[in-house]
Amino acid sequence: MDFALIVVAVLLFASVVGSLASEKLGVPSLVLFLLIGILAGTEGIGHIRFDNAETAKEIGVIALSFIIFSGGFGTQFRMVKPVFGPGISLSTLGVLLSCALMGVFFHFALGFPLATGFLIGAILSATDAASVFSVLNSRDVVLKGNIKPLLEFESASNDPMSVALTVGIITLIQTPSGSGWDLVFFLVRQFAIGGIAGFAIAWTAVYSLKRFIKLDYEGVYSALTIALVLFTYGISNVLGGSPFLAVYILGIYMGNSDILYKRNLLRYHDNLSWMAQVLMFLCLGLLILPSRIPQTALTGIFSTLFLIFVARPVSVFASFLFFPKIGIREKLLVSWIGLRGAAPIILSTFPLLAGISRANDIFYIVFFTVIVSVLIQGTSIPAVAKLLGLYDKGRKNVKYPIELEKSDKLQGELNEIEVPERAVIAGKAIRDLRLPENVLIILVYRNGLFHPANGKSIIFTGDRLLVLAPMFAFLQFSFQVLETLPEEEIQPKSGPSETADYRDEAVRHLRD
User: Fold this and answer.
1) Is residue 407 part of a domain?
2) Which CATH number do you get for residue 314?
3) Virtual CA dihedral for 353, 354, 355, 357, nearest 10 degrees?
């Protein structure tokens, strides 16, 4: 027992070191987690024997449930609203088209049975948000427009579709008398029951938290949300619904409700999802035998190239046919940022347990395709974004040093807004602004530094203001900030380039 604990501790420590290396290299951490698992496995230097696909599947499914819940919990309706239509289209129609194209390719080009080809296509149809944003954040890449929330929403919402398709196709393969209509009815039942169960549990949980459950211990709320995730997954699965859809609805409903300790819960579940990813990829890595990889490497290369350059672009462009406002450059970037990650590798264990023909080949093809996709697409995202002109050079990801815990007694929330070029308020002191009632400017972010705001603070174009205010008041203030002057009128173009200017202002303030 003690030796097993030491081994687990060493693997977790190696994963932490690996995540640091992934930030430096710009490679998603899942690749390094898998490699650590492989090195520790039967044919690696660790010689740990782990060949239990069922255990790996159960760990992966539970881990994926918490990852999906965390994705939903951190999704804000106001961010998703502009991309809701395209996101839903990508996560439904896009998944179906990708599955169909991959299935036809595997059948006619690689000689797989048609049903098996569709099964591989279903497994590979889910994208991974964690992989995409680990690359963007490590390189400090900010994308223009609504591409980031679109990708985030698609990646979180297409997992239920991919899982349901995979399970449905496996059932169809195991039932020779089945037909395509059986698969359609299966998908409808999965999403209908999963959607209703998820919404019912989410509404009941939020109502109870607001009316009856008022606890002083923050940790109890964390335990409660874990219980809710497990209960939602279990009850939806027992009823024959999509458990991942139910969990996602639970997360997104709770994340957009006013509940106590929501910010801390968001941080907790973000940490929990990372822990789940580490354990999941370590277990999956332990399953992999490097000696088997060369046998399917050529097939994996062909499938990856077809996925990247044909299946993904066709499914994206077809999904956006009804959304003409999305330009060709945005479509190309979304097509390129379609990294595969956690879900496909977990789903590749399903055929192993179901006894599907060539299940081992499917497992290694999916593994190889995911790794190559991540290495090719993941490392090139910044370059492709710059090439398409969708890399926002003037903006950086900013993590503010102040957080606000939601409370029933606090009428307001923190929001950020950037002062545009030719803004009317540029060059004015905060005390001279006609601030709406209940609006408080807390911090000014300028030249990579945070400056506490006071009445004498001068606002310049390019400043990013952290504002505490109720939402209606913040919207009023936003109209004021975004009001601009004609181009011929001169306004200050930027703030002080040296922090000394701000110090001089502070000295004058103290002298006064």
Assistant:
1) no
2) 1.20.1530.20
3) -120
Q: How far apart are CA 157 and CA 154, in angstroms?
A: 5
* Residue indicated by tokens 């504002």: 467
- As beta bridge partners, residue 417 has 465
Per the CB < 8 A criterion, the answer to whether 118 and 34 are in contact is no
Confidence of residue 26 (pLDDT cuts 50, 70, 90): low
pLDDT tens by residue, 143-185:
777 888 888 788 878 889 999 999 999 999 988 777 778 888 9
Query: In the 8-state DSSP scheme, what is residue 440?
Result: E
Report DSSP state, residue 377.
Answer: I
What's the rounded Cα separation, in Å, for the pair 65 and 279?
13
Alpha-carbon span 129 to 246, nearest angstrom: 19
Alpha-carbon distance values, 439 to 370, 432, 455 (Å): 48, 14, 13
Residue 16: CA atoms inside 13 Å, Cβ hemisphere, count? Answer: 6
Residue given tokens 């006609």 in the structure block: 434
Both tokens assigned to 217: 């211990």
Last residue of a domain, one of 387, 405, 431: 387
Both tokens of 381, joined, read 């995202």
pLDDT in tens, 365-382: 998 888 888 888 877 888
Rounded to two decimals, what is the model's pTM?
0.79
